[in-house]
Fold these 4 entries.
Entry 1:
Amino acid sequence: METFGERLHAAVAERGPLCVGIDPHASLLARWGLSDDIAGLERFARTVVDALADRVAVLKPQSAFFERFGSRGVAILESTIRQSREAGALVLLDVKRGDIGSTMAAYASAYLDPASSLCADAITVSPYLGVGSLQPAFDLAAAHGGGVFVLALTSNPEGPAVQHAVTATGKTVAQTVIDEIAQVNAGAQPLGSLGLVVGATIGETGHDLSAVNGPLLAPGLGAQGATPSDLRAVFGESLRNVLPSYSREVLSAGPQGSDLRVAAERVLDDCRAALG
């Protein structure tokens, strides 16, 4: 069984370092001339998958934009995950779950157990009940070759109040998260399966990412203000593990699949040039 780190490393080598979000929020559906309902959601998601799943390394559906339509929206999310993976893309499901005990285990089972119709290659999680509370997700990911991306340094303005707070050890909360993930990934080749989410808009972080040995998801590029040239300031010597993530910058080029492909190729070229 290949690990997620192995699969991601191979996908990036073959297709390039790019993650594209699938974020069907109401304003984007309207921009595409689609109705803000199940029909519009299904058309949007299928168009993105048909255009990009056979060429980008990672697709990242945002679960909330499907969940807002209830069970029918979740059914479309299931189809989106399945169709994306069948076309060769890895699926990072953006759910940002975080809980304790049996509840965290249930979340992990929903998204990381191959028996689930929502199973993805990897998920995002929140560590603010303690990194140890995420162990059920780490364990299930390891058992089935999945991945987990842990929020570390996010670009929202409220983030630093928590993430930069100093703990009793003298480290920030964010550095504590970083160090715990690095410890789990230690020795993994070619890449660990636990990643971090580090916003591309935050500039010099003052945090040490050098030992993470796992993928570093960099949202915030494009419409949120960051450019590929900003990645060096944020990630420094860890650029080789960065997975740039775009959503609106690519999605706003729709609804034509050919235009989505052109937009994805353009940002991928920019990222390749910046990452070296």
Entry 2:
Amino acid sequence: MRNDTRLSRMLHTLIHMARHEQPATSDTLAQMLSTNPVVVRRTMALLKEQGYVRSEKGHRGGWMLAKPLAEITLLDIHQALGSSSIFAIGLATDQPECLVERAVNNALTEAFDAAQALLLTRLRSITLQQLADDFEQYAELLEATRA
């Protein structure tokens, strides 16, 4: 099963967009992400619906942030992308009348729900600005080691 990398890829994209004053075209973003511009447009449209990005048509047009990074959390982007399941582990439902299956599924559901609540709380507490600041610190450290 493939991992859903949309959240990571969109966070990456948004931070790059914030670092450049020019609008980013779907083609440019697609090249950066090694994907198709149609995929970029479809994904960015989800973020646009929630007010995180905007687009300008025409020459010199493209995608731009609609809000400062400090006003966008990781949870915001996760939810804008459709809140895909956090876990790829599923429950067995072949034998719904089996009491063992019910007990197993109940325990797993409780554990998954608790873990997901913890993760969503953490995602809510991190802004894209914090990630951008982390990047700047990494860049400064790398520059210092090269000097």
Entry 3:
Amino acid sequence: MPQGKIVKALSGFYYVQDQERLVQCRGRGVFRKNKITPLVGDEVEYQAENDLEGYILEVFERKNELVRPPICNVDQAILVFSAVEPDFSPTLLDRFLVLIEANEIIPIIVISKTDLISSDKIRGEVQSYAKDYENAGYTVLLTSTVESTVENDLLPYLNDHISVFAGQSGVGKSSLLNVLRPDLELKTNDISSHLGRGKHTTRHVELISVGTGFVADTPGFSSLDFTGIEVEDLSYCFPEMRERSSSCKFRGCTHVKEPKCAVKEAVEKGEIPQYRYEHYLTFVEEIKDRKPRY
């Protein structure tokens, strides 16, 4: 049986990309019985007499699954944050990074609009932040508003992967995608505008081919709370803490008040930036204050 990837789901139809062929499929009744809902990003086996009358027979195992946006098998998240206009926000970036890490998706940090920096002080601050995140183990790309730099810097990372774009609003996510796929003609601040959403059209996720990869056409993460993340899991979402946790005196150390904590020692030595640790403590309190769900 042929196999392919679901690149769009709309009104009960699933559009399966099989190399150059796009096949409109319905899910088999067995999915409803087993409570399986095919998602954009799913690798599936299908049967089709023609391009308009196919059936999905099997959904293969997923490596991850996001609820908002509803998509699965995401390889990486392109987190776009601007150097200026709006100013770079490490607090918001750390919040995104925790959510991405918790879903076992590889984050790639893009700091855009670097050519619009007007002072040496701000340039130095942005470069210092970029170095901190690189030292933590992240890939950081500094891009300008010049189109050629976007293609040269970003496109190689998108090839052969499923990527989602997320980040601050107004940072140029649509502008980046417009450079990579000019035919989309995305309006600024609306990554999904090319779907022609009107009053009666439903919002949906779609995978757009960019280079030899796919980019999810979605506004990214619509919720930035830490539902599902427990205090004991949080440090695993900070790579520089994750790698030091085994050196703490106490197993299950939360790196808050425990003695002989390798993470706190690394903060004191300047090996972990103070602001990253402070964000971690803020997130710990936020998770503790979360109202229990019954």
Entry 4:
Amino acid sequence: MNQVKLIPYKTEEVLETSAEIPRGVQMIEAEEVWKESGRGEGSVVAILDTGCQTDHPDLEGRIIGGKNFTKDYNGDPDIYEDNNGHGTHVAGTISAIKNNKGVVGVAPLSSLLILKVLTGEGNGDYKGIIQAIEHAIEWEGPKGEKVRVISMSLGGPDDSEELHTAITKAVEKGISIVCAAGNEGDGKSNTAEFAYPGAYNEVIQVGAVDHNRKLADFTNTNDQIDLVAPGVKVLSTYLEGKYAKLSGTSMATPHISGALALLIPMVESQFQRKMSEAEIFSQLIKRTTPLGYSKTAEGNGLLTLSLTNKLEELFSVFTNS
């Protein structure tokens, strides 16, 4: 079965403590929609990664379940602790709690289903990922919750028909799948770099920008990029209850996964019905701002969650004047 790896990333800094809303969360304007989205309460995001430090103080009450699909911990399916650090960092960006210390995630009341598909060394295979996707599709929480978002900051060079089929099935079931574009970029938008599953048309493929909205020189560029999010020196939760600043499209991906955890309850409340994955994708892309790069580099642009609210305010000024 084809091998898949943790997309290489860079550890910029490890911190003992922190007390701030990370700049990436601010950049995508998550706070501006917290009130109308209930901070993502009721949304379940499945994270396919290296596991998670389940007792990290900033993730208290956020983890709704999990399963191990690797050989780590003697293959015990019930132990999905993070022995790498990557998965815990991703988890914090999505839903670290707002407790006036540490960090806060994009959707601080969303729930996480931790599916460990990568070992402590960052290795895995498509078989485990396919099993995890199928588990996420079938999973049901104690209150009837269902997974609406799958976050995958991983990739491999090989296309897999079986993996593609599993992803297509999940999307048809109304699950949005968010994938990292990869970090093999050469800084040129006219050369394409592909990593799977990010390159599949059915997924939401995320590239990375820095805090100055400049395209990261490592981010993959190709004709399937959907949008970009902060992915340079991203501050989030880390092993041993610590915090770290990491760089990579792996860090951009959970910003979008968390944003979907906000958007789904928000727009379904507005429309008074469950929406399809394609409709949710449309609502996501409506909230992007072009940065001036080619479409193969930035897709539709940078996620800016309160954009539609600002446009509505602008139009109301014109119509009432």
